[in-house]
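Pyridoxal phosphate homeostasis protein: structure, please.
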Amino acid sequence: MVTLVSTQSETLLDAQLAAIRMRIQTAETQFGRRPGSVALLAVSKQQPITRLLAAYTAGQRAFGESYVNEALTKQAVLREQLIDWHFIGRIQTNKTRLIANHFNWVHSVSDFTHAQRLSQQRPPDLPPLHICIQVNISAEETKNGLAPAALADFIKIVRELPRLSIEGLMTLPAQTDDFSIQRRTFADLRTLRDQLAKPELPLTTLSMGTSDDLEAAIAEGATIVRVGTALFGARAGDHF
Ligand SMILES: *Cc1c(COP(=O)(O)O)cnc(C)c1O
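Here you go.
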């Protein structure tokens, strides 16, 4: 039997969740964004289930996970909770079926074979899988994501996949403390989106901004910020 909640972790999480919501609200106001236009995705990878449940109890519904097996373990325990599960990690070809079956959103699509498999493997009784295309906006060797120059052609072919719904773009830029560099990078993703969006494909979602740079992302149009450590504290070592 798993003991799910300790009162202490619940109280702490209440306060941390309130603090993140306040940061989001303050940034919305400061940068002229419509109140409530930025959604919080709670990035719960490598966090214990008790913390997810505490955040859920405090009203959080959208959770982001990066490792499929870890996420499935959590989903099995939290099956009674009405959680909106987002996959934000590196996609492995042999995991696409599980992702297509167990998540509502995938933020990290940047490979056509993966997109094709996700579409083919999306169960017919579920709505189309919401996806964001991950863009390697700061052109780092080690980061996942599509080069900006490849984006238009990629969207053209992924749009044809019947069981995927392209919602917008995602990026995880190189870490920097310089606010103006953070903003410039996020502005690049917004500009790309503005160039590619059309009435029949509005690309309304910009999934950008994490614990350290969510203000800059909101300033530049983020509609989903993905926050892990600032909400849940440090992650467990390497694996779950
Ligand atoms: C881990 C992760 C995050 C959260 O980062 P924090 O610095 O913990 O807020 C956001 N996005 C992606 C893609 C991640 O892998």
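Notes: The mean pLDDT is 94.
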